[in-house]
Amino acid sequence: MEHYENFKEELQIRTAHAEEIIRRYLPEEAGFARTMAEAMNYSMCAGGKRLRPILLLETFRMFGEDERVAEPFMAGIEMIHTHSLIHDDLPAIDNDDYRRGRLTTHKVYGEAMGVLSGVSLLNYAYETMLGAFDLTSDKDRVIRALKIMSNKTGLYGMLGGQSVDVENDGKEISREMLDYIYEHKTSALIEASMMAGAILGGADEEQTAQIEKAASAIGLAFQIQDDILDVTSTSQELGKPVHSDEKNNKVTYVTLFGVEKASEQVQKLSEQAETVLEGLSSKNKFLTALVMEMASRRK
């Protein structure tokens, strides 16, 4: 891949743009349910890389023109993702006190509000994405994008992956099951982001299938890199506790194959994704650069 000029600056511009859109869609902190809105917004405004909204918009840009229709989906996917982080951190699951360098939602608002604000964010994501109907005359694209979003989020996607992960926590599991967990827990939302972006932009079925293939490889590479960083990084650099996999006796790509083999796998998967993206008739050099960066990241 040729070197992408000014990648860091370009990413900053796009992150700021995604941030502005996300904040525009956040609930107002008013009325009797104000605390819940505050808890939702606390997690939504905790920084974060905003990768999923960026991936959604950049994929949209390969196929479509009027970006307004993508905006509710950019906010929605980040709400879905953030809800999963709030719930992941709960005492019943990972029991983590820090996320993105600050206290987790349940540490600030209590466990009950952690549960409720997570569920509420998940629902608010759909309330937000349904707003896309008012922004386009092509209602069919919105319907198809919503179907992808809900499928990749629920039992057959991220939440299914999380349930298998939780159920087998600390147990010996096979590589097949680990792949299932990663494909669903992590890849599914990356697939949802990129496929929804493509569909909203007007991609056909074949193009959308190719995007799904690339996104699947990106998600897997991203998660394996996460395993590697848990062993090789520091909590200052990562913004969350390191060696938590070891502490929780988690089976990961690193425990199964070691850092070196896991790194080779990351390289292989990100190259697969790059090949698929480069093979499409519409190209987006920034998107390809971002995909490669996601796999080699340090935090």
From TrEMBL:
Organism: Blautia intestinihominis
Cofactor(s) listed: Mg(2+)
One Pfam family from the record: polyprenyl_synt
Organism domain of life: Bacteria
Keyword Transport listed: no
UniProt keyword annotations, A-Z: Isoprene biosynthesis, Magnesium, Metal-binding, Transferase
Similarity annotation: Belongs to the FPP/GGPP synthase family.
Protein name: Polyprenyl synthetase family protein
NCBIfam families: FPPsyn (NF045485)
